[in-house]
């Protein structure tokens, strides 16, 4: 572990001018002979000789499937004119975000499973936290936009083309990314100023707020404010989506045509499944308030929204959605004809 000694000198004048800074310095000096942490160690990953490789291969295959599945969906939606609608535009944005989202964590997990070196630098940890949570919030906002899109399409179909214009879709996407990358920034900047001394072991599969803050050797009670903000974000998105779908289901049940009900349900089923999988695991992880879980359940919940949710998303959108299956079939048939023509 890289380290350096904490100094024991400070200025009395500075104490008078900056009481808060002086208090922070006093806490640091109280640590005496402790050393400052400049890198963290993921303690839960097994060594390669002790079973790490048995987890590496399945995780590598899952990561490859996530990248391939989401990339195929993104490309199909871009090239197939039949899918140039607001709903599929948001699905393509979600696919792109999923690729970025998983890339912030899974490659590091793979590295830890096959390497003796299971550490991450302070800067690397902060960057991982920032991009992971920024992309996660952006995904939540996109899922919310998709719920609004389905609500307007089913509950107000006559005005749908004039409301959900391409311009509005782009604005909602940019706004989702803006919210994601802006809201997390103050918390990351604050964590970057904290001193870390003593233990450097993170009991989680990636750098997250709670495991990292538990290692700080100073008061971190201000995190309650950040937690409250994140809770409001999650609950607000959840309520918008839930209320939209309650109204959608009521409208669908009131339809007289069996075929119309089936078509309406099929277009919403995929999004509703992804919504429950994503927000269910996120709520368990970040809306626990004072509840605490064992390390096992912390890791199990993290695996759900870091690995399993992105893994199932391409399956859900391609298997449940008839239009997507047909578009993927058309793309592969076109590629096959093109390869035969080349011969």
Quick recap:
The chain is built from 14 helices and 3 strands.
Structure description:
This protein is mainly alpha-helical and 343 residues long. It is 72% helix and 3% strand. The chain has 14 helices and three strands. Strands 2-1-3 form a three-stranded mixed beta sheet. Helix 4 runs antiparallel to helix 13 (295-319). The protein is globular. The termini are far apart. The model is unreliable at 1-33 (pLDDT under 50).
Which helices and strands occur, and which strands form pairs?
Layout: H1 12-17, H2 19-30, E1 39-42, H3 52-79, H4 86-103, H5 106-114, E2 119-121, H6 122-155, H7 160-163, H8 166-183, H9 185-192, E3 201-202, H10 209-213, H11 223-253, H12 258-286, H13 295-319, H14 322-342
Parallel strand pairs: 1-3
Antiparallel strand pairs: 1-2
Q: Measured on Cα atoms, how large is the radius of gyration?
A: 24 Å
Written as H for each helix and E for each strand, in order along the chain, the element string is HHEHHHEHHHHEHHHHH
Order of strands across the main sheet? 2-1-3
The portion of residues forming beta strands comes to under 5%
The parts where pLDDT drops under 50 for at least 5 residues are 1-33
What does the largest sheet look like? 3 strands, mixed
Total strands: the figure is: 3
- How would the global form be characterised? globular
Arithmetic mean pLDDT: 82
């Amino acid at each position: 572990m890289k380290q350096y000694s904490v100094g024991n000198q400070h200025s009395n004048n500075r104490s008078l001018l900056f009481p808060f800074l002086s208090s922070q310095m006093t806490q640091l000096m109280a640590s005496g002979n402790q050393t400052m942490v400049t890198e963290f160690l993921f303690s839960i990953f097994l060594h390669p000789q002790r079973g790490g490789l048995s987890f590496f291969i399945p995780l590598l295959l899952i990561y490859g499937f996530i990248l391939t599945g989401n990339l195929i969906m993104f490309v199909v939606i871009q090239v197939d004119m039949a899918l140039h609608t607001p709903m599929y535009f948001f699905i393509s944005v979600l696919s792109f975000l999923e690729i970025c989202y998983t890339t912030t964590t899974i490659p590091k997990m793979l590295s830890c499973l096959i390497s003796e070196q299971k550490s991450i630098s302070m800067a690397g940890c902060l960057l991982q936290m920032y991009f992971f949570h920024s992309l996660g919030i952006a995904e939540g906002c996109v899922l919310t936009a998709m719920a609004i899109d389905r609500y307007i399409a089913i509950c107000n179909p006559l005005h749908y083309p004039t409301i959900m214009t391409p311009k509005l879709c782009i604005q909602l996407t940019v706004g989702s990314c803006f919210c994601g990358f802006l809201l997390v920034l103050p918390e990351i900047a604050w964590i970057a100023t904290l001193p870390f001394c003593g233990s450097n072991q993170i009991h989680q599969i990636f750098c997250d707020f709670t495991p990292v803050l538990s290692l700080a050797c100073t008061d971190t009670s201000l995190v309650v404010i950040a937690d409250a903000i994140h809770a409001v974000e999650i609950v607000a998105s959840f309520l918008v989506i839930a209320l939209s779908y309650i109204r959608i289901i009521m409208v669908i049940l009131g339809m007289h045509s069996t075929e119309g009900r089936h078509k309406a349900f099929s277009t919403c089923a995929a999004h509703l499944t992804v919504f429950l999988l994503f927000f269910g695991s996120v709520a368990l992880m970040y809306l626990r308030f004072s509840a605490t879980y064992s390390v096992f359940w912390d890791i199990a919940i993290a695996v759900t929204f870091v690995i399993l949710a992105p893994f199932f998303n391409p399956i859900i959108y391609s298997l449940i959605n008839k239009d997507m299956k047909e578009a993927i079939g058309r793309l592969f048939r076109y590629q096959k004809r093109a390869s035969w023509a080349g011969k």
